[in-house]
Amino acid sequence: MKYDAIVIGGGPAGLTAGIYLVREGVKTLLLEKMVVGGTPLNTEKIENYPGFPEAISGKDLMERFIFQAKNCGLEIKEFQEVKGVERVGNLFSVHTADTEYEAYGLIVATGTSPLKLGIPGEDRYFGRGISYCATCDGPFFKDKTVAVIGGGDSALEEALFLTKIANHVYLIHRRETLRAQKILQDRAFKNPKITFWLNKIPLEIKGGEFVEKIVIEDTKTGERGTISVDGVFIYVGSKPDTTFLGDLVERDENGFVLTDENLFTKTMGILAAGDVRKKMLRQIATAVGDGALAAYNLQRYLLNSKI
Q1: pLDDT value at position 157?
Q2: Cα–Cα distances in angstroms (integers) from residue 137 to residues 38, 188, 232, 279, in the given order
Q3: Residues marked as catalytic
Q4: pTM for the whole structure
């Protein structure tokens, strides 16, 4: 199946790019390896996206994105993980598990996935007390004690969300200070259901059939101890998945795609948008901006190439 453009990834950047492309008459396909909507689907409340002064849930916001994209005529295929991309002449061949698609230009907007701690017990107890999404799995821990590991926006947002479900929340962070926005820190420090364990790192997650405790170490004294918990939610960063692109793009030391100011990668015809590319700020607003810019520049590329 041949298209003018293929957008890989169905989060805010990919959906925005798709909307802009189809509105300009570019025959476009959007491929998403999971459910369309991206990372915001896991966010309970979004307060900093313009136009929603009363805040909006990530699910509701992305449903609006999806409705608009489909209303514009964007063709969307879910559960189509891209396994590889090849350049064949002036076309790109995009391979999923069971289908091959062709297009003259690509926008890569695959976002990121959570980083793991890499400590004993993490893999063993995944799905048995360990989670990377409080919005998804929080209801399983009603009236129980949980720990959140991390010090950024996601960690504090999810810790605050969990206080509505769990009996108590421990927040474990390796440093003296948190990285999250001040407004989130203020709310968390005022919440009586959150206990902060700063300058602490998790060494191991233990239990029987399910999680029972975390072994922690003080980063200043080296003293070790344990915290009894029923669940552990991990928010220590994210990583992009761009292995399917091979050497068609350049990446930084963390795997994020390098682009120029117009969002082109080293291969003309391939652009990157949203969290997958190297950038200073990863927010829905910046992803939307990336999606619009990538679509505009891809359309110009297709026109100038007389495709």
Answers
A1: 93
A2: 17, 20, 11, 30
A3: 133, 136-137
A4: 0.86
